[in-house]
Amino acid sequence: MHNSKRDVVVIGGGITGLAAAHRLTEAGASVTLLESSDQLGGLGTFFPMGERWVERFYHCIMPSDDHLLGLLDRLGLRDEVDWRRTSMGMVFGEDRYPFNSALDLLRFSPLTLLQRLRFGVVSLLLRHLGRHRDLDRTRTEDWLRDLYGDVIWEKLFVPMFGSKFGAAFADVPALYLWQRLGRESNVATRGYPAGGYKSIIDALHASIEANGGRIHLSTPVGSIAGDEDSMRVTVAGGEVIDCDRVLSTVPLPQLRRLAEPELAERLPTTRLAYQGVVNVLFFLRRPLEGHYWTPVLHSAAEFDGVVEMTELTGEAAYDGRYLAYAMRYTDRGSALFADDDAAIAERWTGQLLRLYAGLPLTREDIAEVRVFKAPFVEPVYPLGYLTRRPPVAVPGTRLLLATTAHVYPDVTSWNSSVGLADSVAGLALATRGAARTPNEV
Ligand SMILES: Cc1cc2nc3c(=O)[nH]c(=O)nc-3n(C[C@H](O)[C@H](O)[C@H](O)COP(=O)(O)OP(=O)(O)OC[C@H]3O[C@@H](n4cnc5c(N)ncnc54)[C@H](O)[C@@H]3O)c2cc1C
What we know:
InterPro entries: Amino_oxidase (IPR002937), FAD/NAD-bd_sf (IPR036188), Zeta_carotene_desat/Oxidored (IPR050464). This protein is α/β, with parallel strands linked by helices. The protein has helices at residues 15-26, 66-74, 102-106, 113-130, 140-148, 150-165, 174-183, 196-210, 252-258, 261-264, 310-313, 335-338, 341-355, 385-388, 404-407, 414-430; strands spanning 6-11, 31-34, 46-49, 52-55, 81-86, 89-92, 95-98, 188-193, 214-216, 221-226, 231-235, 240-248, 274-284, 293-297, 305-308, 322-330, 366-379, 399-401.
């Protein structure tokens, strides 16, 4: 690796690191991006299947994803996004329901008629009811229990939010849900890039290098040191890179392990719990029910939702098969996360077969099963996080942070990552050379 002094070293080649490096190199900064794995894309990475590539974790684009769509525009990929209308299902106990129209709600028998009406009316008004309230300091439970009543809270929201955020879900600020409702609805137009997420990652890679940026794969950063004058990054093999700025995109618990003692003292003190995820991909010989998203509530299955990806991509994307992701968000220290992939695949296959037995779905319909895990998906945001959110510029240093801990109150997504990357890269550009560096190149 050539190690002349760089303007910026970007740590992490997920969408945040790539979008930041792209913005910086477009503006003429000399940038080196270091990625520990042998692939770019982070949580958006993929694996080969026949002639195509499949994402390890389900991903889609929403029409309101302005930051991401703006980036795709600049990369010439915006017209490559296929938009489709998608629907939602719901598994409650052993039964499956469509969950899209007023009629679906009226037929949703786990609630009484009065509760169904209350659910419909409150849901229609929820975005409006949240305006002018300090939802960042309001517990999700306090807000929703009040509006929907005890039964709906216990029957629907406890399993839904409990599955996303674990035991601390009731304390997550109601602002998170409010923002999410602004991004998604049951019947929603969703987009998927025609060439898969790999096409976006490849375009960013090519554009960064065309603008003079350097990208190094399989290059884990081992340590970071620095002060208000300059920064130094040491790669795990021992190579050292001096730079004016470091822009780190790795989750904060991982960053703490990389920072040399003096730098570590300046890092944000807020300790955040993070949720990880287990995703099982079922390649099927038949579709399930045709809903993009189906929460799985009060069932014996270990997963808490199913995403039928083929609804968005079409079956040609998987050589004529249908792809369904089953997911469970969980702490990286949980027994499930530590469990053997083959054991998870076997158990969840049995659970999927039981859940959809009535279709009918049989073992012969399952062509292939793959298991992927990610330890850090997003923080479990604590109450009042707007005022506790760590700053992107670490005081007394030339280290900038752009992570999922910084996107709140936006929903964790490629869109919010691109928006954050743009603003943090903009900060690096605005203060370029501001440090007292006598040997600046
Ligand atoms: C199951 C699931 C479903 C999702 N669905 C959607 C969706 O539908 N739409 C959407 O927009 N978003 C979705 N997301 C969210 C989205 O994937 C993330 O918000 C986004 O990818 C975060 O990007 P990032 O670059 O900040 O982090 P990451 O993607 O985690 O990237 C961090 C990178 O840093 C690297 N790294 C770590 N340590 C080091 C080190 N020491 N040295 C060098 N490199 C290092 C990692 O290898 C990784 O590549 C989903 C995520 C999951 C898990």
